[in-house]
Specification:
Blueprint lengths: L13 E7 L1 H4 L9 E6 L4 H12 L6 E7 L7 E4 L11 H4 L13 E7 L16 E7 L4 E8 L11 E3 L2 H11 L6 E6 L4 E4 L16 E3 L2 E6 L11 H20 L10
Parallel strand pairs: 1-5, 6-12
Antiparallel strand pairs: 1-2, 3-4, 3-5, 6-7, 8-11, 9-10, 9-12
Protein backbone atom coordinates (compact mmCIF):
# COMPACT_ATOMS: atom_id res chain seq x y z
CA UNK A 1 0.00 0.00 0.00
CA UNK A 2 1.20 3.49 -0.80
CA UNK A 3 1.16 5.82 2.18
CA UNK A 4 0.33 9.40 1.25
CA UNK A 5 2.60 11.99 2.83
CA UNK A 6 2.28 15.74 3.06
CA UNK A 7 5.00 16.25 0.47
CA UNK A 8 3.01 14.30 -2.15
CA UNK A 9 -0.26 16.22 -1.68
CA UNK A 10 -1.43 18.46 -4.51
CA UNK A 11 -1.36 22.05 -3.24
CA UNK A 12 -4.88 22.46 -4.63
CA UNK A 13 -6.11 19.72 -2.29
CA UNK A 14 -4.69 21.10 0.96
CA UNK A 15 -4.93 24.23 3.08
CA UNK A 16 -3.01 25.68 5.99
CA UNK A 17 -4.23 26.15 9.54
CA UNK A 18 -2.44 28.37 12.02
CA UNK A 19 -2.39 26.57 15.37
CA UNK A 20 -1.69 28.48 18.59
CA UNK A 21 -0.43 26.56 21.64
CA UNK A 22 -2.13 27.17 24.97
CA UNK A 23 0.90 28.89 26.48
CA UNK A 24 0.83 31.44 23.66
CA UNK A 25 -2.96 31.79 23.63
CA UNK A 26 -2.90 32.56 27.37
CA UNK A 27 -0.11 35.12 26.97
CA UNK A 28 -1.06 38.42 28.58
CA UNK A 29 1.23 40.59 26.45
CA UNK A 30 -0.61 39.67 23.26
CA UNK A 31 2.47 38.04 21.71
CA UNK A 32 0.58 35.16 20.10
CA UNK A 33 2.78 32.81 18.10
CA UNK A 34 1.53 30.01 15.89
CA UNK A 35 2.69 27.03 13.88
CA UNK A 36 1.28 26.05 10.50
CA UNK A 37 -0.42 22.67 10.13
CA UNK A 38 -1.24 21.53 6.59
CA UNK A 39 -4.23 19.24 6.08
CA UNK A 40 -6.30 18.04 3.15
CA UNK A 41 -9.41 20.00 2.23
CA UNK A 42 -11.55 16.94 2.93
CA UNK A 43 -10.41 16.94 6.58
CA UNK A 44 -13.05 16.90 9.31
CA UNK A 45 -12.36 17.82 12.94
CA UNK A 46 -10.98 14.36 13.80
CA UNK A 47 -8.41 14.65 10.98
CA UNK A 48 -7.33 18.10 12.13
CA UNK A 49 -7.04 16.89 15.73
CA UNK A 50 -4.86 14.00 14.58
CA UNK A 51 -2.58 16.39 12.66
CA UNK A 52 -2.32 18.74 15.66
CA UNK A 53 -1.70 15.78 17.98
CA UNK A 54 1.19 14.60 15.82
CA UNK A 55 2.81 17.99 15.27
CA UNK A 56 2.59 19.16 18.91
CA UNK A 57 3.16 15.81 20.61
CA UNK A 58 -0.23 15.79 22.33
CA UNK A 59 -2.31 12.82 23.36
CA UNK A 60 -5.70 12.40 21.73
CA UNK A 61 -8.59 13.42 23.93
CA UNK A 62 -6.42 15.59 26.18
CA UNK A 63 -7.01 18.81 24.29
CA UNK A 64 -9.79 20.83 22.68
CA UNK A 65 -9.54 23.10 19.67
CA UNK A 66 -11.06 26.60 19.68
CA UNK A 67 -11.62 29.21 16.99
CA UNK A 68 -12.58 32.90 16.97
CA UNK A 69 -15.93 33.73 15.43
CA UNK A 70 -16.39 37.05 13.65
CA UNK A 71 -19.88 36.20 12.41
CA UNK A 72 -22.73 38.66 12.98
CA UNK A 73 -22.18 40.26 16.40
CA UNK A 74 -19.57 37.79 17.68
CA UNK A 75 -16.66 40.23 17.21
CA UNK A 76 -14.00 37.63 17.89
CA UNK A 77 -15.62 35.49 20.60
CA UNK A 78 -13.86 32.17 21.25
CA UNK A 79 -15.85 29.00 20.52
CA UNK A 80 -15.05 25.29 20.63
CA UNK A 81 -14.59 23.91 17.11
CA UNK A 82 -17.84 22.06 16.25
CA UNK A 83 -17.53 18.30 16.09
CA UNK A 84 -19.42 17.25 13.00
CA UNK A 85 -18.85 15.52 9.70
CA UNK A 86 -18.56 18.62 7.50
CA UNK A 87 -15.03 19.29 6.30
CA UNK A 88 -13.15 22.06 8.09
CA UNK A 89 -12.34 23.56 4.69
CA UNK A 90 -16.04 24.07 3.96
CA UNK A 91 -16.29 25.99 7.24
CA UNK A 92 -13.21 28.12 6.67
CA UNK A 93 -15.15 31.26 5.81
CA UNK A 94 -17.06 30.84 9.07
CA UNK A 95 -13.93 30.56 11.17
CA UNK A 96 -12.18 33.83 10.45
CA UNK A 97 -12.03 36.35 7.60
CA UNK A 98 -9.69 35.26 4.85
CA UNK A 99 -6.10 36.34 5.48
CA UNK A 100 -4.08 36.36 2.25
CA UNK A 101 -0.49 35.32 2.75
CA UNK A 102 2.63 35.85 0.70
CA UNK A 103 2.52 32.23 -0.46
CA UNK A 104 -1.09 31.56 -1.42
CA UNK A 105 -4.30 33.48 -1.88
CA UNK A 106 -6.48 31.07 0.10
CA UNK A 107 -8.31 31.47 3.40
CA UNK A 108 -6.34 30.50 6.47
CA UNK A 109 -7.97 29.44 9.73
CA UNK A 110 -6.46 30.00 13.16
CA UNK A 111 -7.15 27.41 15.85
CA UNK A 112 -6.23 27.54 19.55
CA UNK A 113 -5.23 24.57 21.71
CA UNK A 114 -6.67 24.09 25.19
CA UNK A 115 -4.86 21.30 27.02
CA UNK A 116 -7.16 19.51 29.44
CA UNK A 117 -8.02 16.29 31.27
CA UNK A 118 -10.14 14.13 28.99
CA UNK A 119 -12.24 12.98 31.95
CA UNK A 120 -13.34 16.58 32.60
CA UNK A 121 -15.36 16.70 29.39
CA UNK A 122 -17.09 13.38 30.06
CA UNK A 123 -18.92 14.88 33.05
CA UNK A 124 -22.27 16.23 31.88
CA UNK A 125 -23.39 19.25 33.89
CA UNK A 126 -26.61 21.19 33.80
CA UNK A 127 -24.76 24.42 33.04
CA UNK A 128 -21.73 24.85 30.77
CA UNK A 129 -18.41 26.06 32.13
CA UNK A 130 -16.34 29.00 30.86
CA UNK A 131 -12.61 28.70 30.13
CA UNK A 132 -10.61 31.42 31.94
CA UNK A 133 -6.81 31.62 32.12
CA UNK A 134 -5.41 32.55 35.54
CA UNK A 135 -2.32 34.67 36.28
CA UNK A 136 -0.72 35.83 39.54
CA UNK A 137 0.90 39.29 39.62
CA UNK A 138 3.57 40.19 42.20
CA UNK A 139 3.81 44.00 42.70
CA UNK A 140 7.25 43.63 44.31
CA UNK A 141 8.93 41.90 41.38
CA UNK A 142 6.57 43.08 38.59
CA UNK A 143 6.33 39.40 37.68
CA UNK A 144 3.32 37.73 36.06
CA UNK A 145 3.11 33.98 36.75
CA UNK A 146 0.90 31.43 35.03
CA UNK A 147 -1.49 29.74 37.47
CA UNK A 148 -3.37 27.42 35.13
CA UNK A 149 -7.06 27.64 34.26
CA UNK A 150 -10.39 27.95 36.04
CA UNK A 151 -13.83 26.99 34.80
CA UNK A 152 -16.62 29.10 36.34
CA UNK A 153 -20.19 28.02 35.66
CA UNK A 154 -22.35 29.80 33.10
CA UNK A 155 -25.97 30.24 34.09
CA UNK A 156 -27.28 31.94 30.97
CA UNK A 157 -28.48 29.82 28.09
CA UNK A 158 -27.24 31.87 25.16
CA UNK A 159 -25.00 31.32 22.17
CA UNK A 160 -22.40 33.56 23.82
CA UNK A 161 -22.11 32.15 27.34
CA UNK A 162 -20.73 34.38 30.10
CA UNK A 163 -20.16 34.18 33.84
CA UNK A 164 -20.66 36.78 36.55
CA UNK A 165 -17.72 37.80 38.76
CA UNK A 166 -19.35 37.40 42.17
CA UNK A 167 -17.91 36.16 45.47
CA UNK A 168 -18.14 32.56 44.27
CA UNK A 169 -15.78 33.46 41.44
CA UNK A 170 -13.32 35.10 43.85
CA UNK A 171 -13.31 31.99 46.05
CA UNK A 172 -12.63 29.82 43.00
CA UNK A 173 -9.73 32.10 41.98
CA UNK A 174 -8.13 32.07 45.45
CA UNK A 175 -8.50 28.31 45.78
CA UNK A 176 -6.85 27.67 42.40
CA UNK A 177 -4.08 30.18 43.15
CA UNK A 178 -3.61 28.64 46.63
CA UNK A 179 -4.05 32.00 48.36
CA UNK A 180 -5.88 33.06 51.52
CA UNK A 181 -6.50 36.54 50.19
CA UNK A 182 -5.19 39.03 47.65
CA UNK A 183 -4.99 42.76 47.03
CA UNK A 184 -7.15 42.80 43.90
CA UNK A 185 -8.55 40.72 41.05
CA UNK A 186 -8.71 41.90 37.43
CA UNK A 187 -10.29 40.49 34.30
CA UNK A 188 -8.92 40.99 30.78
CA UNK A 189 -11.68 40.78 28.20
CA UNK A 190 -10.15 39.40 25.01
CA UNK A 191 -12.81 40.74 22.64
CA UNK A 192 -12.69 44.32 23.90
CA UNK A 193 -8.99 44.12 24.87
CA UNK A 194 -9.95 45.86 28.12
CA UNK A 195 -8.92 45.26 31.73
CA UNK A 196 -11.38 45.83 34.56
CA UNK A 197 -10.92 45.58 38.32
CA UNK A 198 -13.48 43.30 39.94
CA UNK A 199 -15.38 44.56 42.99
CA UNK A 200 -16.39 41.98 45.58
CA UNK A 201 -17.37 44.20 48.54
CA UNK A 202 -20.78 43.47 50.02
CA UNK A 203 -22.97 45.71 52.11
CA UNK A 204 -24.15 44.86 55.63
CA UNK A 205 -27.04 42.86 54.22
CA UNK A 206 -24.68 40.71 52.17
CA UNK A 207 -25.88 42.06 48.84
CA UNK A 208 -23.63 41.88 45.80
CA UNK A 209 -22.20 45.03 44.16
CA UNK A 210 -24.54 46.86 41.79
CA UNK A 211 -22.51 45.75 38.82
CA UNK A 212 -20.73 42.47 38.31
CA UNK A 213 -18.31 42.15 35.41
CA UNK A 214 -19.21 39.41 32.93
CA UNK A 215 -16.43 37.22 31.58
CA UNK A 216 -16.22 35.08 28.44
CA UNK A 217 -14.33 32.05 27.16
CA UNK A 218 -10.62 32.78 26.71
CA UNK A 219 -10.55 35.76 29.09
CA UNK A 220 -7.61 36.18 31.49
CA UNK A 221 -8.05 36.65 35.24
CA UNK A 222 -5.18 38.33 37.12
CA UNK A 223 -4.72 38.12 40.89
CA UNK A 224 -2.56 40.84 42.46
CA UNK A 225 -0.72 39.64 45.57
CA UNK A 226 -0.69 41.50 48.87
CA UNK A 227 2.61 43.09 49.92
CA UNK A 228 4.05 44.29 53.23
CA UNK A 229 6.42 46.69 51.49
CA UNK A 230 5.59 50.38 51.28
CA UNK A 231 8.12 51.53 48.68
CA UNK A 232 9.09 50.28 45.25
CA UNK A 233 5.77 48.62 44.46
CA UNK A 234 4.26 48.69 40.98
CA UNK A 235 0.54 47.95 41.05
CA UNK A 236 -1.00 45.82 38.34
CA UNK A 237 -2.85 48.74 36.73
CA UNK A 238 0.44 50.66 36.27
CA UNK A 239 2.17 47.50 35.05
CA UNK A 240 -0.62 46.90 32.55
CA UNK A 241 -0.57 50.46 31.23
CA UNK A 242 3.19 50.31 30.67
CA UNK A 243 2.86 46.97 28.91
CA UNK A 244 0.10 48.24 26.64
CA UNK A 245 2.04 51.40 25.70
CA UNK A 246 5.08 49.30 24.83
CA UNK A 247 2.96 46.92 22.76
CA UNK A 248 1.20 49.73 20.87
CA UNK A 249 4.54 51.36 20.01
CA UNK A 250 5.92 48.00 18.85
CA UNK A 251 2.93 47.27 16.62
CA UNK A 252 3.02 50.76 15.10
CA UNK A 253 6.73 50.56 14.35
CA UNK A 254 6.25 47.17 12.71
CA UNK A 255 3.26 48.32 10.67
CA UNK A 256 5.31 51.25 9.38
CA UNK A 257 7.83 48.76 8.04
CA UNK A 258 7.17 47.80 4.40
CA UNK A 259 8.23 44.17 4.85
CA UNK A 260 5.87 43.39 7.73
CA UNK A 261 2.84 41.10 7.13
CA UNK A 262 -0.21 42.96 5.88
CA UNK A 263 -2.56 41.73 8.61
CA UNK A 264 -0.81 44.04 11.09
CA UNK A 265 -1.76 47.17 9.16
Amino acid sequence: AVVSTQSTWDVREVFNIKVVKESSWASFDGNVQSEVVTVQKTSVLADVQAAVEKQFGLEGGNFRLWWRSYNDNDNGVFRVVPNDTESIWEKTDNFVPAIPTAFEQEPESTLFIEECDSEKWEIKEEFPRILVFLKIYDPETKGLEDAGKIYPLCYNDTESPTFQSGLGFKNMVLQKAVLQDCKAVYLLNRRADSVEKLIFDTDKNGAQPDREVAGEDGDICIVELNSTLEDGLVGFEDFCETLRNTRDILIKSKSDSMDYPSEFH
